[in-house]
Recover the amino acids of this structure.
């Protein structure tokens, strides 16, 4: 007969009667790995000053944000409920069964204050320092990439900065004007004209193969040795990838140099193929390696920019017909080179090369030499191998954060609040990698110890067998059988 389980609620519990979390629980192991939580949460202290009315231990909220990532929780209401229900999480936070943990409004409010007053990069830097101490960071190769994270705003929340109209009203008026206009306007909505009334920092953009939406942009620099995130940042979604990467690369270099390491090769995809980005990486003392974009101009083959030869000594370009394009204008980031109109007027390839213009013009970046060095590296065996490794270095953290870490959507509003979630997600990822590495080392050490112990016992029984063989035969027959069986059992255990 099956016994039915019924709840028997006693009036009082003794501490010994409450079953503690298992030794293999991740929160238990995390507390064992991180010895000094106060030092790790010290950058949060500015948000919990008693003069602000919040004399709370900063460690509590650092751990709460980590729990949100580890439990794949997006919304603060669910996070507060999960904290209250779990004995392991209560013990991790330092709350007894009779204490009331922070509610969802406290979590949201303190996230905003932390984003405004605290330097989150210091928390990530200290965790990276723990990983470096355990030999998990090399610095020789790192990868940088960005991802779009859905914001807590919808397209229907967009309003025109000039008229206050919504998207539908704006597009309807454009259609009416186009019916009577000789030059119809494009039916489009841009970030220059519209802002979300619920989240002013959310930006309209589009991921390849998906509809347009409201996003933030998260950027990581990930070390190639064990996938440790060296630096992370959160920017507006319409920020260029190259611009978003500069700050996190500088932060990565500072963190490594503080631990006597340097940033070696920085690998990225074709979205970072910009001469100015390559020059910025070289200024940090690192080596850029990015996929490069082919010339996408509509010029005929043989008359593209790559077909023009740059003469560094004379600072000019030579066209396929042998004519010179001399420097004409120097801009902030690029230089203009232009041929003489009379040279192009008498050229037999004018239609393919110049088109309707008077003379051929080429724009050259002031940092073009850095880009050409990068292209040369892409055609080496080492460069091709590093570009193939890139996706295995930088993309797993993004996939884990969106699938298992609660970053499939930013539940808060404002870039500063979003930055708290993005940076602390990188902190949680590194702690997961750190705990996993130390647990594997401990298990391997125990396995080696057990094999050595069994081997020692096997040799001991062999010595015992040799001694027994010297005993007279009548007495030896009574002792050798158990010893021989023990020797065989230990030998089998060692082989297994």
């Amino acid at each position: 007969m099956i016994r039915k389980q019924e709840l028997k609620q006693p009036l009082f519990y003794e501490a010994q009667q409450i079953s503690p979390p298992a030794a293999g629980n991740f929160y238990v192991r995390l507390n064992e790995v991180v010895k000094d939580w106060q030092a790790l949460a010290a950058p949060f202290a500015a948000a919990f000053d008693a003069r602000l009315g919040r004399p709370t231990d900063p460690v509590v909220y650092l751990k709460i944000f980590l729990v949100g990532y580890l439990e794949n929780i997006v919304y603060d209401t669910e996070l507060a409920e999960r904290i209250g229900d779990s004995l392991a999480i209560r013990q991790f936070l330092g709350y007894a069964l009779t204490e009331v943990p922070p509610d969802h409004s406290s979590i949201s409010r303190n996230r905003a204050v932390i984003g405004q007053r605290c330097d989150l990069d210091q928390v990530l830097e200290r965790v990276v320092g723990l990983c470096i101490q355990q030999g998990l960071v090399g610095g020789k190769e790192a990868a940088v990439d960005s991802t779009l994270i859905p914001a807590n705003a919808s397209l229907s929340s967009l309003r025109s900065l000039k008229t206050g109209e919504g998207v539908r009203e704006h597009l309807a008026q454009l259609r009416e004007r186009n019916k009577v206009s000789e030059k119809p306007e494009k039916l489009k909505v841009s970030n220059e004209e519209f802002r979300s009334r619920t989240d002013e920092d959310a930006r309209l953009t589009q991921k390849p193969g998906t509809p347009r939406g409201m996003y933030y942009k998260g950027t990581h620099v990930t070390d190639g040795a064990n996938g440790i995130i060296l630096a992370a940042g959160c920017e507006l979604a319409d920020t260029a990838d190259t611009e978003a990467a500069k700050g996190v690369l500088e932060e990565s270099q500072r963190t490594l140099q503080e631990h006597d390491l340097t940033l070696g090769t920085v690998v990225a995809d074709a979205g970072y193929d910009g001469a100015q980005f390559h020059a910025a990486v070289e200024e940090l003392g690192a080596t850029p390696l990015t996929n490069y974009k082919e010339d996408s101009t509509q010029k005929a083959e043989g008359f593209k920019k790559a077909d023009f030869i740059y003469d560094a000594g004379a600072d000019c370009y030579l066209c396929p017909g042998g004519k010179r394009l001399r420097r004409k204008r120097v801009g902030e980031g690029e230089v203009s080179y232009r041929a003489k109109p009379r040279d192009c007027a008498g050229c037999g390839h004018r239609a393919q090369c110049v088109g309707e213009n008077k003379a051929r013009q080429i724009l050259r970046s002031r940092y073009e030499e850095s880009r050409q060095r990068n292209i040369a590296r892409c055609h080496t065996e080492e460069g091709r191998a590093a570009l193939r490794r890139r996706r295995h270095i930088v993309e797993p953290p993004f996939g884990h954060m969106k699938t298992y870490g609660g970053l499939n959507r930013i539940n808060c509003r404002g870039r500063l609040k979003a930055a708290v979630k993005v940076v602390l997600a990188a902190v949680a990822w590194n702690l997961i990698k750190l705990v996993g590495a130390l647990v594997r080392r401990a298990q391997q050490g125990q396995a080696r110890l057990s094999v050595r112990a069994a081997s020692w016992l096997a040799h001991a029984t062999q010595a015992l067998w040799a001694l027994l063989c010297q005993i007279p035969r009548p007495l030896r027959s009574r002792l050798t059988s158990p010893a021989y069986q023990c020797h065989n059992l230990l030998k089998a255990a060692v082989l297994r």
